[in-house]
Design goal:
The chain is built from four helices and five strands. It is an alpha+beta fold and 128 residues long. It is globular.
């Protein structure tokens, strides 16, 4: 099981993410994507977790933090697939745990079907 190991008295990362999204968008609709407005790495939203004092501070994907807050740890041998095909989305309802092979196949199929517009839109939203 993953350990966030935030310091006593600090805000858990999933709460920081939720607050940031509410500040940006107001109410969060569970049926829509929650596009991360903050820092990114390789197209995914990131947030710092852990503690500086014990050396566990590191960036983590916002979508992973939100998934684990709602559903527990990602099962062993699985990764989170964005069913919405929007890497900046951190709504746990848009995510599904799948193997790497399945994730790669699903993404390839989405691209082949001409759904690149969603990826382009996500990037456009992030940089506008």
């Amino acid at each position: 099981m993953r350990n966030y190991s935030w310091t006593k008295g600090s805000t858990p990362p999933e709460e920081r993410i939720r607050r940031r999204l509410i500040e940006e968008y107001g109410e969060l609709d569970p049926k829509k994507c929650w596009i991360w407005p903050g820092a990114t790495a390789k197209g995914y939203g990131i947030v710092m977790t852990g503690s500086r004092s014990d050396g566990s501070r590191r960036p983590r994907g916002c979508h992973v933090v939100m998934w684990e807050a709602e559903n527990g740890p990602t099962p062993d041998g699985k990764e989170l697939h964005h069913r919405c095909m929007t890497p900046l989305c951190c709504n746990p309802r848009c995510l599904a745990p799948v193997t790497h092979q399945v994730n790669t196949t699903l993404v390839t199929e989405e691209i082949r079907e001409g759904r690149r517009e969603r990826l382009a839109l996500a990037r456009e939203i992030r940089w506008s």
